[in-house]
Specification:
By secondary structure, this protein is an alpha+beta fold. Among the domains are: 89 residues, Alpha-Beta Plaits (2-Layer Sandwich), CATH 3.30.70.3160; 89 residues; 29 residues. Strands 2, 3, 4, 5, 6, 7, 14, 15 and 16 form a 9-stranded mixed β-sheet that branches. It has a two-stranded antiparallel ribbon with strand order 1-17. A hairpin with an 8-residue loop joins strand 4 and strand 5. Helix 9 crosses helix 11.
Length: 470
């Protein structure tokens, strides 16, 4: 048995259902009546932006690259974003993917059309102790901000066993890059695409063979390989340009995370930092900072590395050298000689800190999916490219654990403090009151509400007696 001060429960959860994670774009879009691009508001659930765009493209026979968008949105959730279709009218009203026509535009959409994203996130499996700690944590986030890392969603290729395909390209091994793209099925993937990938893994080099249904996305690649079986460079370049760019950006994002992690180690004493696990390793966050250090961080950017990156700040330069040394790279290695015009790393400065705007914590309620625990809605606005999941992790850092930190026997998370109250007989799913010397968050809320009600009743009674005397 664990000691009295420790008990085990599921870690804090988000995205238990699509409605638990909602994001809506704020955008700049003024219709141009004669524009050739049709702009739609795309509402999707449980689909990545690339999956949604691919479905629309295949349904209406559009060429690759005919659909543009402002940014990528989460697969696990319900999201709204703009897309623009070049020269074609489309209409789609599937259960998980709907389009609403907004007007015409004179150019493709890009990140310049996006101003911010508004998130609404339901956080589940919370204990009373979590709710007690949350106000102080929210105050920390408002004062210190959140480090602007790229979160696990950016690194799906690691989760699905493909690794960093950009590393294959840097080495000039286009065959390995293509294998990882089209012949390495993920054990987590239950779609038809996994069957196609398994087929090409078993039949690599036998391009004339007929693949199972779902092979359409590889047709252009296979056409090249059937004509020139070893022309892996040209075959790889048949991948949609936006997805090729994402493969490079994924590795850039990892280098950025590692570089900023090192930068924080150079700027803060160890006791002011705490780690947080994610798909590609661990991240560091600051839990305190002097006014001068915070002022510096607010103004600081860190580069997304490319051959022409030239940091001047000594600390940033040191962090860049550290991460490149760790990866056994030089800046000049980030140039893909076989196709420099179509595969390239682009230098960009990214803010080190973000501050969630209009951060609102909702009222806690009973969690219908996690018996004996609570749920709470958190809403906030972030600039384009920032990750809402990182804000949630920072807010609930005291209860957010990775799989490697769970108890291996129970797959549960160690939590300190008193456990959640037991179930009341005959009232499944409803937390009972937990009698403690110190009332918890919900009990304090109830006491405050009762006190306000009593004060109103007293005021009404006094007003009534005063009226009788007059």
């Amino acid at each position: 048995m664990p000691p009295a001060a420790t008990w085990y429960a599921a870690p804090v959860k988000i995205k238990q259902r699509p409605e638990d994670f909602s994001v809506k774009e704020s955008y700049r879009f003024v219709p141009v009546e004669t524009g050739r691009f049709r702009v739609y508001l795309m509402d999707k659930q449980k689909l990545s932006t690339f999956d949604a765009v691919e479905r629309i493209r295949e349904r209406f026979g559009l060429r690759p690259g005919a659909i543009s968008f402002c940014g990528l949105k989460d697969k696990q959730g319900r999201t709204e974003q703009l897309i623009a279709v070049d020269g074609a009218d489309v209409d789609l009203q599937d259960r998980d993917l709907r389009l609403k026509y907004l007007g015409r535009y004179d150019r493709p959409l890009s990140a310049e059309n996006l101003t911010s994203n508004r998130f609404s996130v339901t956080v589940r499996a919370l204990t009373e102790r979590d709710l007690d700690l949350l106000p102080a944590s929210a105050a920390e986030v408002n004062r210190l901000g959140v480090v602007n890392y790229f979160d696990s969603q950016r690194f799906g290729s690691l989760k699905h066993g493909q690794g960093f395909i950009a590393k294959d390209l840097i080495r000039g091994d286009f065959e390995a890059a293509l294998r990882n793209y089209m012949a390495r099925p993920s054990p987590l993937d239950r779609t038809q695409d996994a069957k196609v990938k398994e087929f090409w893994r078993a039949n690599w080099g036998h391009w004339e063979k007929k693949a199972p249904p779902g092979n359409q996305k590889y047709y252009r690649i296979l056409r090249v390989l059937r004509e020139s079986p070893r022309d892996f460079v040209n075959a790889f370049l048949q991948i949609d340009a936006s997805y090729r760019a994402l493969l490079l950006f994924t590795y850039q994002s990892y280098l950025w995370n590692e570089g900023v992690r090192r930068l924080l180690q150079l700027m803060f004493p160890r006791e002011h930092l705490f780690p947080m696990p994610y798909q590609a390793g661990s991240l560091l966050f600051h839990k305190d900072a002097s006014a001068d250090t915070l002022r510096e961080l607010r103004a600081m950017t860190f580069p997304l590395l490319a051959p022409d990156s030239a940091p001047t700040d000594p600390r940033i330069k040191s962090a860049v050298e550290w991460v490149l040394g760790k990866e056994k790279l030089k800046l000049s290695d980030l140039r893909i000689e076989e196709a420099p015009q179509r595969l390239f790393f682009k230098h960009e400065e990214r803010p080190v800190l973000i501050y969630p705007h209009k951060l609102v914590l909702g009222r806690p309620g009973r969690d219908e999916f996690n018996r004996g625990l609570y749920k709470l809605n958190v809403a906030f606005t972030l600039p384009p490219g920032a990750y809402a999941t990182l804000v949630i992790k920072r807010l609930f850092h005291f209860a957010w654990l990775g799989d490697d930190q769970l108890d291996p026997a129970t797959h549960q998370a160690p939590r300190t403090g008193p456990p959640p109250p037991p179930e009341r007989p005959g009232r499944p799913g409803r937390p009972a009151s937990n009698k403690r010397a110190e009332p918890g968050f919900l009990e304090r809320q109830r006491l405050k509400k009762a006190a306000r009600q009593k004060a109103r009743e007293m005021q009404a009674k006094q007003a009534k007696s005063k009226g009788k005397r007059s």
